[in-house]
TrEMBL record, chain A:
GO molecular function terms attached to this record: 2 iron, 2 sulfur cluster binding; iron ion binding; oxidoreductase activity
Organism: Litoreibacter roseus
Name the UniProt record assigns to this protein: Aldehyde oxidase
Domain of life of the source: Bacteria
PROSITE patterns assigned: 2FE2S_FER_1 (PS00197), 2FE2S_FER_2 (PS51085)
Keywords: Iron, Metal-binding, Oxidoreductase
Pfam families listed in its UniProt record: Ald_Xan_dh_C, Fer2, Fer2_2, MoCoBD_1, MoCoBD_2
Lineage of the species this protein comes from: Bacteria, Pseudomonadati, Pseudomonadota, Alphaproteobacteria, Rhodobacterales
UniProt domain 2Fe-2S ferredoxin-type: residue ranges: 8-84
Family indicated by similarity: Belongs to the xanthine dehydrogenase family.
UniProt-listed InterPro entries: 2Fe-2S-bd, 2Fe-2S-bd_dom_sf, 2Fe-2S_ferredoxin-like_sf, 2Fe-2S_ferredoxin-type, 2Fe2S_fd_BS, Ald_Oxase/Xan_DH_a/b, Ald_Oxase/Xan_DH_a/b_sf, Ald_Oxase/xanthine_DH-like
UniProtKB/TrEMBL annotation, chain B:
Keyword hit for Flavoprotein: yes
Protein name: Oxidoreductase
Keyword Flavoprotein: yes
Native organism: Litoreibacter roseus
Domain of life: Bacteria
Any one GO MF annotation of this record: oxidoreductase activity
Length: 911, 328
């Protein structure tokens, strides 16, 4: 039952100004600051003191506002980022430094990071790296890999520099200022005051049947505005990201298929919600036997999760060329292994959140997302409304990494707004976010590889099963991608790879940076090391021998006559490989307990959809006043699309990047630039931006009748073109404005050229691949089983680095996630549903990273650029496992390689 | 139903007068209680804020140190006397939580924090004898990698999460409590009670009793002490195993040894027999290995945490060897 409470007014100082607010007993300071006092620069990531995003200064000391009872600040001083930025020179300098290092990517952790850093810098002008790590150790970041943040706080020389932002230059994020001054608005920051709130009722069991008691009388008795169930869905109670595999209900009916699955939602005032006890909701659960691993799911008699998916097999993928078995038989040496990995949680610091309202009879959803147009597609089906009646306005996204491709809060928001007619908001709790969002697929992989005496791969046979959980989500994409990528970036002529996605009563596994490729790379790159050592060939040289090259077919029979950069990546690691392996050998001669190892691994990733249309459209134009406008609908989830796509467009048009007015994303305003996934935005939307910029330029040159190399300047109601003949002026005021207030416009679409895969997986799945190779040095404490990476060298072929600072940012962030996957991260449904039981790397876990940018231009990429977002974590985990192997002789075949696992394997080996 | 109220106590006497039964809770920094209330595990109707009380660290006439229950963890860890004379305490606190949490958390609250067992927290979906006595324990036979191997029972295998308390246990700290009936002092090594068949009862504190301070006995001459924590990531994760250890070595023999274990038991686990086995022996690896065997002789493991026995033994040996090495 709801518990009444007495609120009491408290008085304190907020950012040096007197503040008063009514606080309820036990109310969190974070909530009071955000909701009662509008201080939405205080971000909430976990509400449990684990992430530090809500860090504020209390009498000058950093504390977690989420664990501070609001009453306890009576008479004290509270400072937040926005206040510090306004008032304190140190904060402004730090904000500049964050921008100059790319230390804020998505920006959701930035207030916590900066507030903690300012407290440090007040007492210490020149902190050491260790002091920074201690001061910032309680703030989690999932994007940056922390190194840029350390650089920014210690005041390392700036990376970004002033300039026109043309392709190839490191400028600051064009959308960065609001991330460092506290004004960035994420999913939970945009709702107007007084919104109704939504609470979703979820299954506490992996599988359960349930019945509702009288919901109408519950609503009457409690005074809630509305209760939503499957009965309230006017369209179809189903969603999914792949049309043939749509299978997930908004609200489960009769039976739930995973813990955390929604069955109903309560819509009520914030006053009601502040004391609402979910246990009072009239639902009766009956726990049912659940199948929570892929082996049980495939047994005879196992509960079938979906009709038409016999044996709980969702689907599979298959690629073969040559004769894998014959190749293995002919091998001089073979190796084989069985590799496993668990669920991995995306762990973005911003939980899913948003608000919705009805405007002129249309429903508007403002929420964090990676795919606004796909959200619209889903809502159209669920709501049963005409497309024109729905508007998706994405907020800033506090990290996504694949999971925010699927809808989450959107249907609840839209349904509640439509049912009540009032503005509504929702923000998932951390536990709710972790329970209900998609995960990286657990994998169970068997692989056998053979090579001849010279070290050339002769045969490769891969079979992988993936736990896709209760619903398909992006599982079919994982199943398709894995066989295409499981070879790694190598030339293998006798190849067979088969994958299967299996349903279980686990959370849906979906898209997560790499779509299954990081899992297959662990198996392949680990066995490459084993095979090289068995053959007596240096592991790096073994990879170079087998590396894919221009003109050599991939395992799908696709031949790239240009742009294959893996050899260059591997060769770039040679100096570090030689010096670090020598140093490790010397170290190990005298060290008994701590053993040092150096590991390498490579990876590749095809950019964009696999053999499917994947267009992006970018629109641009000129306003009567001479401003250039870019309608940029590609979601920037921290990776930098807003900056990189603008740089490409500006270069094509021939103007400085910071002169462009950027609009979007908004489904009413921006054309569809596709989803932010599969490392496609720089390549695909970047190309659309290039085409749009080129088309606009062409249009202007034609209208002005000036030379092709004319220099254009925009402003004051005119365009000035300067060519060999002198200055030409184009008066824009005489041109007719269209309904978007443009006098000139250009809209262009780019779709990567691909070809379908045949029944053997032969075809042209991607127009381009990106390539990567990582080296890592680790120290293994053989007594405790702890593994400490001490250095990374990462070589990435990005074709052309549009913004080298942001390339480094991606590399660092990917390595941090790869390190987490390798050493500490495993989501156990029902058990690790928060950020202290589910561990992601902290600032103390990430060693220095040297990034080597390789630019092997791609003919299809804008200015030669290739995608990068996924490549950055694919080699990391196998490189770490190879380093552990080099240090200890132990081959770890399961991630995460926790101290308990590593120690167990070392003990086994010693017997 | 009673409304939830908040009130700030002006003194320990005032706090005790305000405490009127089970439904009242003393509120420290709230780093654990605010969370437990959100989860519906703690359901007080009256919050009596005791932060701001008992804020001093005072040297005692007997050479010991009295730390007020309201002192922040940061203040304890940074105190010059603590760092010099009780280094394992400072290290344990620094290893225990992030700066943000240390700045908030109080000594009294840290001692009383409750287990992080995920089944304990899972009100809707799991059975837990600590939360709902008699209901059963889903951790036994469940996902129990983080759970205890010493002092556990058939009804509960949860661990005590504190790092600080492990160091207090090593130093034989004494907890001073006040109530309407006066004051009493309880050695920390007697303070916590084992779960047996009443895991909901975690310590000797009676309702209405308030921890006011913690006494550290005078430091022993030539005692070396340290704290080591093994966890899954570099910082701010709960311990898989931690060890607070100390040695006094004289003329090539150990004359005093201390071993307290964290992450393995429902309380900071003092390995008294293991300590006794070291005293009188030379500070060799063999001595320490033998002690580590004794310390874990009664371990009761689950499939998920079987690794903890060997890991705990290894951390004990490593800590003692470090101390012995430092002493030479």
């Amino acid at each position: 039952m709801n518990k009444p409470f007495f609120s009491q007014q408290i008085a304190f100082e907020l950012n040096t100004q007197p503040a008063r607010a009514d606080a309820t007993p036990g109310q969190r300071l974070s909530e009071l600051l955000r909701e009662n006092l509008g201080a939405r620069d205080v971000k909430i990531g976990c509400d449990a003191g684990d992430c530090g995003a809500c860090t504020v200064l209390l009498d000058g000391q950093p504390v977690c506002a989420c664990l501070t009872a609001a009453h306890q600040v009576e008479g004290r001083s509270v400072e937040t980022l926005a206040g510090l930025y306004r008032a304190e020179e140190k904060a402004k300098r730090l904000a500049d430094s964050f921008q100059n290092h790319g230390a804020a990517q998505c920006g959701i952790c930035t207030p916590g990071m900066m507030v903690s850093a300012i407290a440090l810098l007040r007492n210490n002008d020149a902190p050491t790296e260790d002091e920074v790590k201690d001061a910032l150790g309680g703030v989690l970041c999932r994007c940056t890999g922390y190194r840029k943040i350390i650089d920014a706080v210690v005041g390392a020389p700036a990376i970004a520099h002033d300039g026109d932002g043309s392709v190839g230059t490191s400028i600051r994020r064009l959308d960065g200022q609001c991330k460092v001054d506290g004004t960035e608005a994420f999913g939970d920051d945009v709702a107007p005051v007084g919104c109704l709130e939504i609470f979703v009722i979820r299954s506490p069991f992996a599988r359960a049947s349930f019945t509702f008691e009288n919901l109408a009388s519950f609503a009457d008795a409690t005074g809630v505005e509305a209760v939503l169930t499957a009965d309230d869905i006017a369209g179809r109670n189903i969603f999914g990201v792949i049309p043939q595999f749509m299978d997930q209900p908004v609200f489960a009916e009769a039976e739930t298929r995973f813990r955390g699955e929604a069955v109903a939602a309560v819509v009520a005032t914030s006053e009601f919600m502040s004391t609402f006890d979910p246990r009072s909701f009239p639902v009766t659960w009956t726990e049912m036997p659940a199948t929570q691993n892929i082996h049980d799911a495939q047994k005879d008699g196992a509960v079938q999760l979906h009709h038409g998916r016999d044996g709980n097999v969702m689907c599979g993928g298959f690629v073969t060329c040559g004769d894998a078995q014959a190749g293995l038989s002919a091998a001089s040496k073979t190796v084989e292994g069985h590799f496993k990995s668990g669920f991995v949680e995306h762990g973005y610091i911003e939980p899913e959140a948003g608000f919705a309202q009805i405007v002129n009879g249309r429903v508007e959803v403002h929420a964090c997302t990676q795919a606004p147009v796909m959200d619209l597609d889903s809502l159209q089906i669920i709501l049963g409304l005409d497309r024109s009646q729905i508007r998706i306005v994405p907020t800033a996204v506090g990290g996504g990494f694949g999971s925010k491709l699927d809808i989450s809060v959107q249907p609840y928001l839209a349904l509640a707004a439509l049912k009540t007619g009032k503005p509504v908001r929702i923000c998932y709790s951390r536990t709710e976010s972790m329970q209900s969002s998609t995960k990286r697929h657990p994998s169970d992989i068997r692989l056998k590889i053979g090579a001849d005496a010279e070290g050339r791969i002769t045969g490769f046979d891969f079979y992988g099963e993936f736990d896709t959980g209760a619903y398909a989500s992006w599982g079919p994409t994982v199943a398709n991608r894995v066989p295409v990528h499981a070879s790694g970036p190598y030339a293998i002529s006798n190849y067979r790879a088969e994958s299967k996605g299996i349903h279980t009563h686990n959370p849906p596994a979906g898209a997560f940076r790499g779509f299954g490729v990081p899992q297959s790379a662990i198996a392949q790159e680990s066995l490459f090391d084993d095979l090289a050592r068995k053959l007596g060939i240096d592991p790096l040289e073994f990879r170079i021998i087998n590396a894919l090259e221009d003109g050599v077919p991939t395992v799908c029979g696709q031949v790239f006559d240009q742009g294959v950069g893996i050899t260059a990546c591997l060769k770039a690691l040679r100096p570090a490989w030689q010096s670090e392996t020598a140093a490790a050998k010397a170290f190990n001669e005298t060290s008994t307990t701590i053993k040092r190892g150096v590991g390498i691994a490579a990876g590749w990733y095809g950019c964009g959809n696999t053999s499917l249309p994947n267009p992006s459209t970018i629109k641009s134009g000129v306003r009567p006043d001479g401003r250039v406008v870019l309608y940029q609908g590609a979601m920037d989830i921290g990776q930098g699309a807003n900056t990189v796509i603008t740089q490409i467009f500006a270069t094509a048009l021939g103007v400085p990047a910071d002169s462009i007015s950027r609009i979007g994303a908004d489904t009413d305003v921006t054309p569809d630039a596709g989803k932010t996934s599969a490392s496609r935005q720089t390549y695909v939307s970047g190309n659309a931006a290039r085409l749009s910029g080129e088309a606009l330029r062409r249009l202007i040159l034609e209208r002005m009748n000036v030379a092709r190399d004319a220099e254009l300047t925009f402003g004051d109601g005119e365009i000035v073109a300067t060519d060999a003949e002198g200055e030409h002026r184009f008066d824009l005021s005489k041109l007719a404005c269209d309904d978007e207030r443009l006098v000139l416009r250009a809209e262009e679409t780019y779709d990567p050229p691909t070809r379908p895969l045949d029944e053997n997986g032969q075809g042209a799945p991607y127009a381009q691949f990106g390539y990567a190779a990582h080296l890592v040095v680790v120290d293994v404490d053989t007594a405790m089983g702890t593994v400490k990476p001490t250095k990374f060298v990462a070589a990435h072929d990005v074709g052309r680095a549009i913004n080298p600072m942001m390339v480094e940012g991606q590399v660092h962030g990917g390595i941090a996630q790869g390190l987490g996957m390798a050493l500490m991260e495993e989501y156990v449904p029902g058990r690790t549903e928060n950020l202290h039981d589910y561990l992601i790397p902290t600032i103390g876990d990430i060693p220095p990273i040297e990034t080597i940018i390789i630019e092997e231009p791609d003919a299809h990429g804008p200015y030669g650029a290739k995608g990068l977002g996924e490549h950055v974590l694919i080699p990391t985990a196998p490189a770490i496992l190879n380093a552990i192997n080099a240090a200890t002789g132990v081959r770890i075949t399961r991630v995460p390689a926790t101290p308990s696992l590593v120690r167990t394997e070392i003990r086994k080996a010693q017997r | 139903m009673n409304p939830l109220t908040y009130e700030k106590a002006t003194s320990s006497t005032d706090a005790l007068e305000r405490h009127d039964g089970d439904a009242a809770k003393f509120l420290g920094a709230g780093t654990n209680l605010v969370d437990l209330m959100r989860e519906g595990i703690a359901t007080p109707t009256r919050l009596i804020d005791v932060t701001g009380l008992a804020q001093s660290i005072e040297e005692q006439s007997d050479g010991g140190l009295r730390i007020g229950a309201g002192v922040s963890n940061t203040a304890v860890a940074e105190d010059a006397t603590v760092r010099a004379q009780y280094p394992a305490l400072s290290r344990a606190i620094l290893a225990g939580a992030s700066a943000q949490i240390r700045n908030m958390a109080t000594v009294g609250g840290n001692i009383l924090q409750r287990t992080r067992c995920s089944y304990f927290y899972d009100v809707a979906g799991s059975r837990c004898n600590k939360r709902s006595p008699g209901e059963g324990c889903d951790a036994i036979g469940g996902f129990n990698r983080a759970h205890g191997i010493l002092g556990v029972s058939d009804s509960c295998i949860a661990t005590h999460p504190s790092d600080m308390a492990v160091a207090l246990s090593l130093y034989d700290a004494v907890i001073n409590v006040e109530s309407d009936e006066g004051t009493r002092s309880i050695p920390i090594n007697d303070f916590y009670v084992l779960p047996e068949d009443t895991p909901d009862i975690e310590n000797q504190l009676n309702p209405g009793e308030l921890i006011v301070s913690v006494d550290l006995p005078a430091p022993s001459a030539n005692r070396r002490a340290t704290y080591r924590k093994v966890r899954d990531r570099a910082s701010y994760a709960f311990a898989l195993v931690s060890v607070a250890g100390s040695l006094i070595i004289k003329d090539g023999l150990v004359v005093d040894a201390g071993i307290s274990l964290g992450g393995v038991a429902p309380k900071p686990w003092r390995a008294i027999e293991a300590e006794a086995a070291i005293v009188g022996s030379p500070p060799t690896e063999e001595t320490f290995r033998n002690a580590a065997q004794i310390a874990l002789a009664d371990a009761t493991t689950q499939p998920g945490n079987v690794f903890k026995t060997e890991l705990a033994q290894r951390v004990i040996v490593a800590v003692l060897q470090d101390l012995a090495g430092d002493a030479q």
